[in-house]
């Protein structure tokens, strides 16, 4: 039986509990080759293709989502191939901060933090301005502890519980070296141990369907050179499914400007060079549905003094709720330091110039890991001062106002309440009063694309009739809906691992 959902019912479903997306997977096993679907650009019928390679499941990408999916497929005993267009593996996942938000983990229990699914869900919805597809959020939250335990089962060590702006409690589990490569490396090792292979410099150019609209493979290029855009044509047959895990499009200036014209190339990005949207657009050409494409996140914790993500985000985020941010022109605080990313980035954009995050020696030594502090100082982006006066002189901050503001902040820390901006003063926070003092400049960069393909809870890509496109799955940042308008820090890893695993498990069940 196949039922079609009208637009009104669809929107109603999203507005109430997002149940329609969950249900869409149940209503239709796969999309029919209906007249409403135009399989056009970039596709070809089965008979016209001379395949150069064959597998049961083709995973495109090599970040958290791709590798989680590929491991699940292998563990189900199904043949899988992974392709990655870049010469190196891991995409944004490997340069990520290693922060994974989860409820009820060992680190939370040890720290005595009281948390719940409902609270994490409420935090994600609040940041997402309730644009989030609720059932997706629920799936991520309820599987978050399992995501941490799955990572641990393949050898990842989470050693610190951290607080991220926009969350109500500390629930960020950070890997030993505070980097996503701790997770990616373990995933690659596990995948290879299972006999899996990853082919780099191999790009998906288009998705191939058969006459009935089922995805049956891809056209691509091997020996692909990202700089010249050249490579050797290949055609990979996928007997069961193609899983897209190709990440976001923060570095695709044209594509991000279509959705958010202010995000010109004058704004740099924290992302790796391959964070472009061509694979997502190929799915759209098949008639896939997209969502939230113009919600593009700026990271409020990056420095104009270093390229990409750099050291400053993990310096800044470890200080929020402990240290303070100031407007160097007034010497005063200007925003809730523990607010979500949009709150803080918007406040900086409206000032129109870079601001500062400041911590004293006690706070910085307690909060910031040596790799970040030492690396940031060596790179000249985290600066150290013998006194608050010297810090003020260096950044031309009005001294009297600044010293009074630090005193005022310290009084808030001592009583545990911020009367000015309602920042969440963190447990164990101490006044900013012990030299040396550390500071870094802050200016936003393009960081995350919340929008992407609409998938159901089985990670099947839905078409414009909200029916699964046969043989096409997606997970990770290439999908949309989970984070709504604003992604909360450390929730992307959770989303990628949870839905990456689901994509692998579900695709493995497909009939060849
Ligand atoms: C610097 C940085 C730090 C971050 N820190 C955190 C954090 O600590 N916690 C958190 O939750 N989130 C964080 N994020 C966000 C998070 O890292 C990403 O959302 C996540 O890594 C996306 O994973 P993914 O598997 O979807 O895609 P990616 O890891 O980006 O992988 C996608 C891969 O697909 C490849 N690809 C793309 N198109 C094609 C194609 N056509 N053919 C073949 N291959 C293709 C890309 O080259 C890439 O390697 C951070 C992001 C950045 C940029």
Can you describe this structure?
The chain has 512 residues and is α+β, with helices and mostly antiparallel strands. The protein folds into 2 domains: 7-294 and 447-508, FAD/NAD(P)-binding domain (3-Layer(bba) Sandwich), CATH 3.50.50.60; 301-443, Flavocytochrome C3, Chain A, domain 1, CATH 3.90.700.10. 34% of the residues lie in helices and 20% in strands. It is built from 18 helices and 19 strands. Strands 1, 2, 6, 7, 8, 9, 18 and 19 form an 8-stranded mixed β-sheet that branches. Strands 12-13-15-14 form a 4-stranded antiparallel β-sheet, with helices on both faces. The longest helix is centred in the last third of the chain and has 18 residues, at 491-508. The protein is elongated, with a radius of gyration of 23 Å. Residues 1-28 and 32-44 have low confidence and may be disordered. The structure holds flavin-adenine dinucleotide. Residues 60-66, 83-86, 91-93, 95-99, 180, 203-204, 245-247, 270-271, 274-275, 278-279, 309, 448, 476-478, 490-493, 496 line the site of flavin-adenine dinucleotide.
CATH top level of the largest domain is: Alpha Beta
Which regions have little confidence, pLDDT < 50, spanning 5+ residues? 1-28, 32-44
CATH topology title of the largest domain: FAD/NAD(P)-binding domain
Range of helix content: 25-40%
Distance between the first and last residues' Cα: 22 Å
CATH homologous superfamily placement of the largest domain: FAD/NAD(P)-binding domain
Q: How many domain regions? A: 2
Which ions, cofactors or small ligands are bound in this entry?
A: flavin-adenine dinucleotide
Approximately what portion of the residues adopt beta-strand conformation?
15-25%
Distinct helical segment count: 18
Q: Please identify, by name, the CATH architecture of the largest domain.
A: 3-Layer(bba) Sandwich
Largest sheet: 8 strands, mixed
Structural class of the helix and strand makeup? Answer: alpha+beta
* DSSP strand count: 19
Average pLDDT, to the nearest integer? 91
Radius of gyration, taken over Cα atoms and rounded to an integer in Å: 23 Å
**Global morphology:** elongated
């Amino acid at each position: 039986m196949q039922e079609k959902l009208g637009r009104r019912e669809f929107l109603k479903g999203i507005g109430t509990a997002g149940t329609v997306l969950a249900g869409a997977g149940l209503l239709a096993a796969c999309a029919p080759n209906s007249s409403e679907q135009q399989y056009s650009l970039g596709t070809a019928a089965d008979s016209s293709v001379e395949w150069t390679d064959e597998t049961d499941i083709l995973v495109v990408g090599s970040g958290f989502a791709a590798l989680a999916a590929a491991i699940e497929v292998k563990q189900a005993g199904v043949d899988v191939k992974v392709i990655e267009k870049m010469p190196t593996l891991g995409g944004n996942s490997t340069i990520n901060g290693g922060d994974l938000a989860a409820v009820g983990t060992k680190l939370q229990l040890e720290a005595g933090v009281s948390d719940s699914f409902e609270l994490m869900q409420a935090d994600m919805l609040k940041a997402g301005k309730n644009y989030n597809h609720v059932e997706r959020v629920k799936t991520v939250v309820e599987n978050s502890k399992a995501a941490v335990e799955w990572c641990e089962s393949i050898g990842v060590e989470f050693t610190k519980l951290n607080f991220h702006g926009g969350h109500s409690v500390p629930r960020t589990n950070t890997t030993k070296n505070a980097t996503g490569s701790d997770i990616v490396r373990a995933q690659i090792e596990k995948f290879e141990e299972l006999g899996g292979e990853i082919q780099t410099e191999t790009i998906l150019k288009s998705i191939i369907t058969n006459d009935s609209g089922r995805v049956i493979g891809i056209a691509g290029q091997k020996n692909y050179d990202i700089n010249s855009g050249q490579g050797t044509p290949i055609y990979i047959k996928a007997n069961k499914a193609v899983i897209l895990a190709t990440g976001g499009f923060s570095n695709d200036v044209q594509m991000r400007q279509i959705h958010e014209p202010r995000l010109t190339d004058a704004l740099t990005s924290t992302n790796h060079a391959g964070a472009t949207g061509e694979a997502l657009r190929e799915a759209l050409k098949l008639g896939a549905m997209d969502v939230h494409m113009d919600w593009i996140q700026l990271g409020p914790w990056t420095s104009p003094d270093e390229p990409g993500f750099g050291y400053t985000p993990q310096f800044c985020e470890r200080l929020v709720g402990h240290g303070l941010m100031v407007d160097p022109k007034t010497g005063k605080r200007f925003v809730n330091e523990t607010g979500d990313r949009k709150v803080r980035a918007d406040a900086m954009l409206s000032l129109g110039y870079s601001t500062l995050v400041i911590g004293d020696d006690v706070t910085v030594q307690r909060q910031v890991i040596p790799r970040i502090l030492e690396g940031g100082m060596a790179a000249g982006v985290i600066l150290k001062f013998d006194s608050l006066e010297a810090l003020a002189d260096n950044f031309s901050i009005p001294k009297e106002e600044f010293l009074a503001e630090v005193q005022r902040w310290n009084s808030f820390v001592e009583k545990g309440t911020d009367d000015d901006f309602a920042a969440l003063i963190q447990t164990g926070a101490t006044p900013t009063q012990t030299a040396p003092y550390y500071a870094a400049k802050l200016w936003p960069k393009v960081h995350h694309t919340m929008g992407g393909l609409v998938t159901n809870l089985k990670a099947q890509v839905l078409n414009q009739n909200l029916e699964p496109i046969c043989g096409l799955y997606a997970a990770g940042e290439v999908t949309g809906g989970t984070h709504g308008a604003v992604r909360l820090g450390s929730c992307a890893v959770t989303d990628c691992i949870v839905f990456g695993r689901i994509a692998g498990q579900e695709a493995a069940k497909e009939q060849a």
